Amino acid sequence: MKDAFLTPDVLVLASGGTLGEAWMSGVLAGLEDATGHDFRTTESLVGTSAGSLVAAALVAGERPRRPRRQAALLGLPSGEQAGGVASETSTRLAAQLLPLPRSVVQSVAREAVRIAAVAATPLAPMALAAGSSGSSALRAALLGRTPGKDTSLEAMRDGIDRSGARWDGRLRVIAVDRGSGRRVVFGAPGAPEATVAAAVQASCSVPWIFAPVKIGDREYVDGGVWSNTNLDTAPAGRATRVLCLNPIMSLDIAMASAFGLLRAIAGSSAALETLALRSRGAKVRMIGPAHDIARVMGPNLMNAERREEVLAGGYAQGLEIGTGPG
User: Fold this and answer.
1) What does DSSP say about strands 213-215 and 218-222: parallel, antiparallel, or unpaired?
2) What is the set of domains in the chain, with CATH numbers?
3) What value does the mean pLDDT of the chain take?
4) Is residue 36 helix, strand or coil?
5) For residue 228, what pLDDT band results from cuts at 50, 70 and 90?
6) What is the pTM of this model?
7) Is 222 a catalytic residue?
8) Alpha helices in the chain (DSSP H)
9) Among 49, 87, 250, 268, which one carries the catalytic annotation?
10) Is 177 assigned a catalytic role?
11) pLDDT tens sequence across 189-202
12) What secondary structure letter does DSSP report for 75?
């Protein structure tokens, strides 16, 4: 009997840069080819940063990209030849990373330690429910004094618009309000109005690298600043099957670079968020890169030169999981 998590009710796709996008695409493609499941039919999708690209592509009706050899056998576009949302826009994200100011790195690291300590206490679910107001204040302070580089992601937004990705009740895209430091779940009831393209652009706007995205009268940045998974936003109740692909589940990747330090809070947040979903009765499975793939990815998750290799590794991992024992 196959693992029921491989045909989930909710698919959560986390942040992870260019290589994270490639790995998630490969894993989904491998799972599809191993199980026959079509992830374009998933009931609900939650995407953060790179994960929002993959989620938007699925909503637009695009199949996950395959490595060149498998794509040729199936008559599908490969990683480099695909003209879809995730392929086109991941190239735009493959930018030269700027080093974070030392004071910012130290502040984020201290906050990660503090939240990790909270996660180990019986009050953890309450801390999550409270919305971590102290964390929001810190985020707002850091984001306010470190404006984004004047690098535009408008071409990415235009590509998503052309793909036909629209809000259809299934998609949720995570970003952070730069002014307040609070999380915003575009596509959820009560969220600010925005196109899918604008929401994904905001979710991918990594602070200190890309400029914030203005939607209405507010500025938004990368949703990974709040949490790299944002699992707790999944519309899940009792017996809901939630599958989360988390490219920086590996601690080595999460802590080895400035890009990873930006998400230093992610590990403890994911643990809290998993507890929150399970308290609702949902069943959660999280998958990260296999050890050999994590080593290929390395600390620079924006290294486009390794994208095809990571895509192939993700595909192989997906096949292995999909053909494994139930």
Assistant:
1) antiparallel
2) 10-323 (3.40.1090)
3) 78
4) coil
5) confident
6) 0.81
7) yes
8) 17-35, 50-59, 68-74, 85-93, 102-119, 124-129, 133-145, 154-163, 196-203, 251-255, 258-261, 266-279, 291-297, 307-323
9) 49
10) no
11) 999 999 999 999 99
12) T
